[in-house]
Amino acid sequence: MLALAGVSVAFFALPFAGLIWRAPWSKVTDILSEKSVGTALWLSLETSLITALISCIFGVPLAWLLARVNFPGRSFVRALATLSMVLPPVVGGVALFFSFGRRGLFGQYLNDWFGIRLPFTTAGVVIAQCFVAMPFLVLTVEAAIRQLDSRYEDAARTLGASRLYVFRRITLPSIKPALVAGVALAWARALGEFGATITFAGNLPGTTQTMPLATYLALESDPEAALILSMLMITVSFVVLVGLRDRWLGHQRNDLVS
Amino acid sequence: MTTHFNFSVTQGDFNLKIDASVNDGEVLAVLGPNGSGKSTLLRLLSGLQQIDTGHISSRNILWDSPADDIFVEAQQRRVGVVFQDYLLFKELSAVENVAFGLRAQGVNKATATEQARALLQQVGLSEHLHKKTPTLSGGQAQRVALARALAIQPHLLLLDEPLAALDVATRQTVRRDLRRYLSSFQGAVVLVTHDPIDAYALADRVLILENGQVMQIGTLNEVTAHPRSRYVADLVGTNLITGHASGVTLTTSTGITVVLADQAEGDVFAVIKPQAITIVTSNELTSSARNTWPGVITDIDRSGERCRITLHGPLPLVAEITAAAVESMALRVGDEVFAVVKATEVEVYSR
Questions:
Q1: Chain B residues with CB within 8 Å of chain A CB
Q2: Which residue in A18, A207, B233, B260 has the most C-beta neighbors within 10 A?
Q3: A112 within a domain of the structure (yes/no)
Q4: Domains: count for chain A
Q5: Does A175 reside within a domain?
Q6: How many helices (H) and strands (E) does chain B have?
Q7: Which residues of A touch B46 (CB under 8 A)?
Q8: For the purposes of burial, counting CB atoms within 10 Å of the CB of A51, is it exposed (0-12), middle (13-18) or buried (19 or more)?
Q9: How far from chain centre, in Å, is Cα B49?
Q10: Cα(A65)–Cα(A161) distance, rounded to whole angstroms?
């Protein structure tokens, strides 16, 4: 057993060892200070944070709906909302393109009526990221709401509290750790988004070229830069995961006390 | 002013059908075994669930009437609920819990806190205002829950097994306090319990609920004097016999005959108090008692100087005799004995 587990650990660790081994450490500052890298990094941070915010605003009500309101077709809606988690992101990008692209089913009206164009814009990057990242938040928050004893919400309602007030004062404080975890997961997923972004939003430096896209491109033109960019993203993701783990542990400690 | 409810609701193959009312200032206890529909009744009255047919109204305002397409949701009803395990909000202090309902209805924080503080003082908790509720004892939590429900000045107060979560030692004092708070409450009270002592201590009238149906409703004296089901008879601790009377003879469905003192006709109940039963070890003596039934002792339960003897036989009975008698007769579980009852001790009333 131990030997097999050791193989797994090695399997996860070795690729990073390879990266670290080959990374041109002497050129780190040069590459990171390059304008194109800075632009891609900034765009990635900007879009992924907006995605995290949007996922929170729309994903939490969806999670509440799935967890607390018994409506026909609920399992269908849940499957739909989480489909993009298991879909190849490229397929998601294609679907977005044919729906919200300029000639897409809905995109043409967005264009004709409101003059809104999503493909090949930063907004398109956010849409693509939301499409693949929001389910992580929805699932995490839904599970947390489901685990809450709904009788506390009943008790609040008998005291004259509206649904919104109950959610704000009772539900939300109880699911805070899960919400933080969900937002962080969605943000990390958005930060690493590649397939849907490049398919739907394209690869325009400064507008839609996020870090993963820049890394992929650099692999062909400048492999050393690709290595450094990869290291940078690994560092960010790793910090998020470690931070999350502390969150979860903190939550468990609270449970033991109460 | 009165709260009326006359409704029917079906969940799966369980049907709950109740027609009753509670006046302001009155406490109606709903007694029934587990699964009789007590909790569902509270959910319906509080507006957490809708009825199928019929109506619920409070002080001439319809709360629920499917025929009129009226359903007032829980947050709009003037109903205070004390839940079984209180359901105090864990993240909030005692005073924040009590102020919650006022805050939810838009009362500003200072006013709400002031009113909550006054209410907690009334229930004797002025020293624990800012304690987080998980640190309160059971009795304190119960009083916070009561203050929280009363804070919204409800027209109807619902209590769901308010003493069940407490240990025996605190239950008595909390029950006594609860009685005091309820007597000063202006609105109607519905108290759900499975403990007849709660009903004795707190209620003006009792509603017996079994299998979703009202078995009996009336004052405690009415219900206990003439139980109409085995459940009530067991609660009261008496023997209930159902059968058909003709002349001075009652015949049970299993064919046992009971001799009565007075003429009776038709389907009847008969009650024999446990104290009215004499236990004898032989039926060969001549006696003035008209009824003698054989039975095997299955249980001897001593409490103080009295013993309750459970007899298993054609007619299952509980007899109450002195501990001294049990000792001098050397009665033991498994002994075959006879229960002897005078016809004048059998009280008959129609079904």
A1: 46-48, 73-77, 79-81, 83, 87, 89-91, 100-101, 104-105, 134, 148-149, 151-152
A2: B260
A3: yes
A4: 1
A5: yes
A6: 9, 19
A7: 158
A8: buried
A9: 22
A10: 18
ipTM at complex level: 0.81
pLDDT band at A246 (very low <50, low <70, confident <90, very high): low
User: Is there a contact between B104 and A158 if contact means CB atoms under 8 Å apart?
Assistant: no
- The amino acid present at B275, given as its one-letter code, is Q
Determine how β-strand B317-322 pairs with β-strand B306-312.
Answer: antiparallel
Ordered DSSP codes for B126-162: GGGTTSBGGGS-HHHHHHHHHHHHHHT--SEEEEEST
Q: How far apart are CA B218 and CA A146, in angstroms?
A: 42
CATH at residue A206 = 1.10.3720.10
Question: Which tens digits make up the pLDDT trace of A142-190?
Answer: 999 999 999 999 999 999 999 999 999 999 988 998 999 899 889 989 9
In a domain, A63, yes or no: yes
The length of chain B in residues reads: 351
Range of the domain at A100: 35-244
Which chain B residues are Cβ-neighbours of A163 within 8 angstroms?
75
Find the residue in B nearest to A161 (Cα): B104
Instruction: Measure in Å the smallest separation between the Cα of A159 and chain B Cα atoms.
Output: 5
- Residue B307, token pair as written in the block: 């013993």
User: Which range (A101-115, B132-146, B184-198) has the least confidence?
Assistant: A101-115
Size of interface A-B (CB pairs under 8 A): 61
CA of A107: how far to CAs of A3, A49, A113, B309, in Å?
Answer: 54, 24, 10, 85
Could you tell me if residue A197 is inside a domain?
Answer: yes
